Amino acid sequence: MAEISDVYFIDGMRTPFGRAGEKGMYWNTRADDLVVKAIRGVIERNPGVPLDRIDDVAIAATTQEGDQGLTLGRTAAILAGLPQSVPGFAIDRMCAGAMTSVTTMAGSIGIGMYDLALAGGVEHMGRHPLGGDADPNPRFLTEKLVSPDALNMGITAERLHDRFPALTKERADRFGMLSQHKAQAAYDAGKLQPDLVPVAVKSADGAWGLATEDEGRRPETTMAGLAQLKTPFRPHGRVTAGTSSPLTDGATISLLAGAQAVKELGLTPKMRMVSFGFAGVQPEVMGIGPIPSTEKALAKAGLSIDDIGLFELNEAFAVQVLSLLDHFGIADDDPRVNAWGGAIAVGHPLAASGVRLMIQLAAQFAERPDVRYGLTAMCVGLGQGGSVIWENPHYTGKKKNPKK
Ligand SMILES: CC(C)(COP(=O)(O)OP(=O)(O)OC[C@H]1O[C@@H](n2cnc3c(N)ncnc32)[C@H](O)[C@@H]1OP(=O)(O)O)[C@@H](O)C(=O)NCCC(=O)NCCS
Question: Which terminus of the chain has a lower count of CB atoms within 10 Å, N or C?
Fold first, then answer.
């Protein structure tokens, strides 16, 4: 008889993230091969998990064609050498694809239908630019449902600067610079590397190399340097390459389990899911999406923002994260927020990023037994937000239990 179950994040790994485009390290690497690498990484690190016990594989991609097409979860499962009995499927919620893979699998585990699942995402933005082959319904324009430029994420970020004058370019620049510095400090301290799966890569001249680190980092970033950058999305705008996540290639995967599987297989969870929420907002200002989704997730958990000890917020754009911090009254440089840097520095391969946030939160939980709850949250194109609240199994304090 199936039973309602807690949902645990057992482990997560990802490929190093590459700069999209011909000069990027994955230009000659297939997107599905990146997923396979991530899956192999996590199953090799968890040898106690019988592969034939994995109930499903959900892989997200925003563009589902070419090497990101054909039901990625199934194709990647076969290519990764999982038993043929393990099924799989594909998911799309643009930037929150991997996050939705996790919450969808969590639903199946939570109602006791699944014991173990793999959930992740991929985006090879070099091969599949956002919206590249999309054919939006003309009604969007004729009925003025959505502004024609709402799919240009940079323009939506410029609109946040317009809407919230307190979110100045100077604040965004500083946030972008600190993301770069924090990511480099995390690399120097060896915090991020343990969860990266090395990927063999082939250069244009056929030489093989090994991708071991996120490629797009710019640790030398200064405020003076950022002040000089062009504003690619609007003449005399405020959003620059230094305050945007770069176009990125990469894949992520997580291993999720229910309470019964944890017990039976002797697994050691890195996080317990407390709640999640998704919300819609005006597509023209999609960056504020994580505000209502976080409110929803907090309400479901019976928690307040003050209960959250660590935040992993996807930095699609600096201004967009700042809008959430301002809403909740959190300082721009609050040490609980993106302690090891964020997407501005390491990159944002759209449908892969949600699980990167979880991987980093899990790694910080292990170091922080004083912290009970953490939040992973992100904005989504066409006006959405997604938030997942997690509990730290290493927590040693005595705070009150949340409602589940
Ligand atoms: C912002 C964006 C247009 C920039 O693209 P790009 O021009 O190819 O980016 P580059 O890396 O070449 O950077 C542009 C310039 O800024 C410079 N630069 C970028 N970051 C910098 C930093 N932190 N410090 C100093 N200079 C920096 C680069 O060196 C480059 O200079 P150059 O023109 O002299 O060579 C692109 O990254 C983008 O579209 N990002 C958003 C992606 C997106 O929408 N994702 C979905 C979110 S919801």
Answer: N
Yes or no: say if 254 and 9 are a contact pair by the CB < 8 Å rule. Answer: yes
**Cβ neighbours of 359 (radius 10 Å):** 27
Q: Is 244 in the pocket of ligand 1 (CB under 6 A)?
A: yes
**pLDDT classification of 132: cutoffs 50, 70, 90:** confident
Which string of DSSP letters, residue by residue, matches 345-384?
A: HH---GGGHHHHHHHHHHHHHHH-TT--EEEEEEEETTTE
175: phi then psi, degrees, rounded to nearest 5: -65, -45
| Segments in 204-280 forming alpha helices (H) | 223-227, 259-265
- Asked about 236 being catalytic, the answer comes back as no
CA 238 / ligand 1 centre spacing (Å): 13
Confidence of residue 404 (pLDDT cuts 50, 70, 90): very low
349 lines ligand 1 (CB under 6 A): no
Beta pairing class for 271-280 and 199-202: unpaired
Q: Tell me what percent of the chain is helix, strand and coil, each rounded to the nearest 5.
A: 40, 20, 40
Nearest protein Cα to ligand 1, atom 28: 241
Residue 3, Cβ density class (10 Å: 0-12 exposed, 13-18 middle, ≥19 buried): exposed
pTM score, two decimals?
0.98
Query: Relative to the CA of 240, which ligand 1 atom is closest?
Result: 1
Banded model confidence at residue 134, pLDDT cuts 50, 70, 90: confident
Ligand 1 touching residue 353 (CB < 6 A): no
* pLDDT value, residue 398: 58
What percent of the chain stands above pLDDT 90? 94
Q: How far apart are CA 175 and CA 192, in angstroms?
A: 20
> Which of 130, 133, 101 is CA-nearest to residue 114?
101
What H or E segment, with its residue span, contains residue 213?
A: none
The encoded tokens of residue 282 equal 């005006």
Give the whole-angstrom CA distance, residue 39 versus residue 72. Answer: 12
For residue 57 the two structure tokens come to 């594989």
The pLDDT assigned to 399 comes to 53
